[in-house]
Amino acid sequence: MVFERLSLVLLLFYFTMLTTVFFLIRKNHLKTQHALLFIILAIPLLPLSVSKNLQNSIAGILGIHYPPTAFFLVGFAFVLIILLYLLVAISELSTQNKILAREVALLKEKIERP
Amino acid sequence: MISEKYLVMMPAFNEAKSIAQAITEVRAYSPTIDIVVINDGSTDDTAAIAAESNAAVVSLPFNCSLGSAEITGFMYAAENKYDITFRVDADGQHIPSEIDKLAKPIIDKQADMVIGSRQNYRFPLARKTGSLIFSLMVRLITGQKIPDCTSGFRAFNLAAVKFLQANYADDYAEVDSIISLTQAGFRVTEVPVAMRCRSGGNSYLSLWRSVEYMLKVILNILIKSFRRK
Predict the structure, then answer these.
(1) Which residues in chain A have Cβ-Cβ distances shorter than 8 Å to B64?
(2) pLDDT tens across the length of chain A (114 residues)
(3) Which SS3 state, helix, strand or coil, does residue B148 take?
(4) At CB < 8 Å, which residues of chain A contact B?
(5) Which CATH number applies to B6-225: 3.40.630.30, 3.90.550.10, 3.20.20.60, 3.40.50.2300?
(6) Do A109 and B62 touch (CB under 8 A)?
(7) Rounded distance, CA B222 to CA B229, Å?
């Protein structure tokens, strides 16, 4: 019974997150480019959150005693992948930002030079 | 003797207390030398004081990092085709009369970058240890013996400046630049110079920053050592 209730909670959370992502894209608060990885990684989590057999199989392969933990393990791995993706995106933005800052500073000096 | 083709670049972040004195000292040493202050988003009057002291001022719109300020200086020097660019601290540690010593190996075509190594300077033990580790790593990777590879008092010829404007680490680039230049075939050398303690402001190296500096530089060096030469 506890197992089914957990699946239901995971399913609810899953669809809430996906709906939020789609809503954010629609409102232009999130770029499709960044949301794509999130959506792709979320696909395998759906069967994992509802299928006992799948959880049992993965838990068996990984030697996990409590099968729902397999869901969290896979979810955690996905979160780490998304985190790394975001860190790369932030690093690129930071680099581009500083390049722009340098160009602006040099142009401003040139314009204001007596 | 300094000519018009020489540039002193001073990266500065909140150095209002010392920048005027630093510029005056350079001017006293050579009235004709060009000076550019790279104001790295200072929140005090650094930019205004530098401009009043008749230095060119390039102001970054926000605090980018020391490395970024230095890249801006290299871009300025490359665009204006300075024969030799001297990187001098804005806090008064570097003595302008020592510039000749830095310039000589470049004028004699013996080096592309010259590092002024601190001779009469008392380092805290932690920094001395860090410097020793960096020197050993630089020696292992490049074969170059540079005891004071964290010194910021440096001179560059135009070729080195052009290379560094596109190949300079965004932060903590002192050690990194020695390896980059050496691996790219540039000649790096060191000359002993006298140096003073800071005359104002705060060093950007706080305790946490020192640890960050060590870790980041070591990581950069290790990554570079695995790159193809």
Answers:
(1) 98, 101-102
(2) 455 787 788 888 888 988 999 999 999 999 888 888 888 888 888 888 788 888 888 888 888 888 878 778 888 898 999 999 999 999 999 999 999 999 999 999 999 887
(3) coil
(4) 95, 98, 101-102, 104-106, 108-109, 113
(5) 3.90.550.10
(6) no
(7) 14
